[in-house]
Design goal:
The structure holds 2 protein chains of 2 kinds. Chain A contains 8 helices and 18 strands. By secondary structure, chain A is α/β, with parallel strands linked by helices. The longest helix of chain B has 28 residues. The chains are: A alpha/beta, B mainly alpha.
């Protein structure tokens, strides 16, 4: 067994919600006058303290790649922020043996007015590389990013794909002994994602230590030897990745069946709109517990909103995943229904004719953004249990062959060669 | 190869613990991040005049036009004097030189943390680099405006004296004053967005409380000590003294210097006290 790279001992982090984020001096001036040094937040609201992390302890050895999974608000990002020293823990202690590099976002500090070349240097320096190091790796980074031709163009003229590629090219060449990575691979196109995952795999083979946060079970299973499952700021499982993923998915299923959607606290967004309930109905309007392959269904996503909103771009979606893959992102933008009005109380209705997923259990997250700002996002908000059915109207059930069913027909013709 | 080295480590390279009270200053760590400081300043200089027609010419237009306007309205029309035998325009320009540096640096510095909030929320580095990087780009502007002063001294036939060797010290005084106030304002800005409204207003008022338009002789001697509590009084007068070499501007104003040091020291302490919450609040 190799030596310890990271020793986390009883880390806790308390946040006060309802902090004076955008507060003004007016309310605070008297307060400040009396105790200007002590008050960093409004201490008069002791009621709303939350523990983002509570008594988290674990060890990571050199050369290990450890995944961290958990629902929204489970404390994944907070943990990573503490390990990368962006924020300090309320109590506990972390010992780190080696040089740390963190990648919580790709392209941190990119300046739109600067050229690709200039941003490589700036971003490299921000990520902790020295100028010599950047000089040395410059050509490699440019080749990796595939944007040679636009090296001297300001990045504000880049497409978002080019931007991400350049940003990741810099990040991928970071060579710390311990690398902390947040969900940064979620951006960019699929082929580039693969390339990045490949690069990370290389990193692991070189014996470096990586801590990797992700929602993507495939990349977690692909990359990590061990995985931590965080739940409500505590480690609920830490073991072999396959066991951890299994454990996590099981918990999610339990949660989405047991807890009402409106009471879920593991959500993100500004709360302008909040999902309250989701129901699936058949054509006749009967609520369904299980869906049968081939059935015509509609999904009603109930919500409450803080105000009526019209003429805004509404992106509502549910992403369907099985254990490993995202099967579909069913959303109002791609299908051209982005101008949905929002009522104070209402529901979005999504019709789905001839349900074409094969028998199995599917996890769906719900997401809504209004004019590009996330209003509500609940990961694994509900599960759909699909029963085997007569999808092809052939009088037979189909069994378990693949996940997606495709309406089709067959014919046979004679040809001359 | 790096890993073999690190496997043999028995003492942690980094220990993360809750920090109560005053944080360690970590000057050694700052030194390790000097290249980042360089790049932050470099970014600022690169970006500043992009997509502007006159570009870097703005550096001298600002103090030069101000000097003309002051000369026309205050000197010619209102009859305000220079307080010495030297002509009003050059005496005013010698004051505008540190003042422009101070005002621009302070306004950049006070909003610097919030302007770089994506860095603070996503990357670790000594937070002090950000406000420090706010007061450095102005030195380039200062150097350019200073060359213009030399040109004007030739035109007005004012030979520089040996005292000009104290210019770096005078500039350091201006820098520390801007940084000291900037540390206070930038740290407050993270919590209170009022600062973005206060800073320009403060700078405007501050200029009237500093002997730029008018000579210090306009202030009755018995009130000079009170007037000197404004640290920029000392800075501006000292600049006039070392640049123009005229003893009528007096020597170093120790009251102002003390206030500068006080503001800087408390600003530093306040900043260190507040910085651990920056990432959570910003």
């Amino acid at each position: 067994m190799s030596s310890i790279a990271l020793r986390v001992q009883n880390i806790s982090k308390k946040y006060r919600i309802g902090t004076v984020r955008h507060d003004t001096l007016r309310d605070q001036i008297a307060h400040i006058a009396s105790s200007s040094f002590q008050r960093t937040r409004n201490s008069k609201v002791p009621s709303s303290e939350i523990w983002a992390l509570k008594d988290v302890s674990f060890d990571v050895h050199h050369g290990e790649i450890v995944g961290i999974i958990g629902r929204n608000g489970a404390g994944k990002s907070t943990l990573l922020k503490i390990l990368s020293r962006i924020t300090v823990p309320t109590s506990g202690r972390v010992e780190i043996f080696g040089k740390v590099g963190s990648l919580l976002e790709v392209g941190t500090g990119f300046h739109p007015e600067l050229t690709g070349r200039e941003n490589i240097y700036l971003n490299g320096a921000i990520l902790g590389m020295s100028r010599d190091e950047i000089n040395r790796k410059f050509n490699e980074m440019v080749a990796f990013s595939e944007i040679e031709k636009f090296l001297d163009t300001p990045v504000k003229r880049y497409s978002s794909g080019m931007y991400v590629r350049l940003a990741f090219a810099v990040a991928a060449h970071l060579e710390p002994e311990i690398l902390l990575v947040d969900e940064v691979l979620a951006v960019g196109d699929l082929t580039f994602q693969k390339k990045c995952l490949g690069k990370m795999g290389e990193v692991s083979r070189e014996g470096r230590t990586v801590i990797f946060v992700s929602h993507n079970m495939t990349s977690i299973e692909h990359l990590c030897n061990k995985t931590i499952v965080l739940n409500n700021g505590k480690i609920s499982y830490f073991g072999k990745t396959s066991d951890s993923v299994q454990y996590y998915l099981q918990k999610i299923t339990e949660l989405s069946t047991r807890t009402n959607l409106k009471d879920r606290e593991d959500r993100k967004g500004d709360g302008k709109l909040k999902f309250t309930k989701i129901s699936v109905y058949d054509k006749q309007g009967n609520e369904l517990k299980n869906v049968v392959s081939g059935q015509d269904i509609f999904v009603r996503i109930y919500y409450s909103a803080s105000e009526e909103i019209i003429n805004s771009e509404v992106h509502v979606s549910f992403v369907i995943k099985d254990r490993h893959y995202t099967l579909s992102n069913v959303n109002s933008i791609d299908s051209g229904f982005s101008e949905l009005p929002i009522y104070k109380k209402g529901f979005f209705e999504c019709r789905w004719e001839k349900f074409n997923l094969a028998a199995g259990l599917y996890y769906c997250s719900l997401y809504c953004s209004i004019n590009g700002i996330v209003a509500d996002w609940v990961d694994s908000a509900f599960t759909i249990n699909v029963e085997d059915g007569d999808f092809y109207n052939s009088g037979k059930h189909i069994g378990k062959q693949g996940k997606v069913l495709i309406s089709h027909s067959w014919a046979s013709h004679k040809s001359s060669f | 190869m790096d890993t073999t080295k690190s496997t043999s480590l028995t003492h942690p390279t980094t220990v993360i613990e809750p920090q109560h009270g005053w944080n360690r200053f970590g000057l050694k760590e700052m030194w390790g991040y000097r290249e980042l400081l360089y790049f932050l300043v470099w970014r600022d200089l690169k970006v500043r005049y992009k997509q502007s027609f006159l570009g870097a010419a703005w550096i001298i237009i600002q103090p030069l036009v101000t000097m003309f306007v002051f000369t026309l309205f205050f000197n010619r029309l209102l009859g305000v004097g220079s307080g010495s035998d030297l002509p009003y325009p050059i005496v005013t320009y010698a004051a505008l030189l540190p003042w422009t540096y101070f005002a621009n640096s302070l306004s950049r510095c006070s909003t610097s943390l919030v302007a770089n909030k994506n860095l603070i929320a996503k990357i670790y580095f000594p937070r002090l680099l950000i406000p420090v990087s706010g007061v450095l780009p102005g030195l380039v502007d200062f150097a350019i405006s200073f060359v213009l002063l030399l040109v004007m001294m030739v035109v007005f036939r004012i030979p520089p004296t040996i005292e000009i060797i104290f210019l770096p010290f005078a500039l350091l005084l201006a820098l520390i004053t801007a940084l000291g106030v900037g540390l206070w304002l930038s740290a407050l800005h993270v919590q209170y967005h009022d600062v973005q409204y206060i800073a320009p207003f403060l700078i405007q008022i501050w200029m009237y409380a500093t002997p730029i338009i008018y000579p210090i002789s306009a202030i009755p001697i018995k009130w000079r000590w009170l007037y000197s509590l404004n640290p920029m009084v000392g800075v501006v007068q000292y600049f006039r003294r070392v640049l123009l070499g005229d003893p009528t501007f007096g020597g170093l104003n120790w009251i102002s210097v003390l206030i500068t040091i006080l503001i800087f020291a408390t600003g530093l302490l306040f900043f260190y006290r507040m910085q651990r919450t920056f990432a959570d609040v910003i």
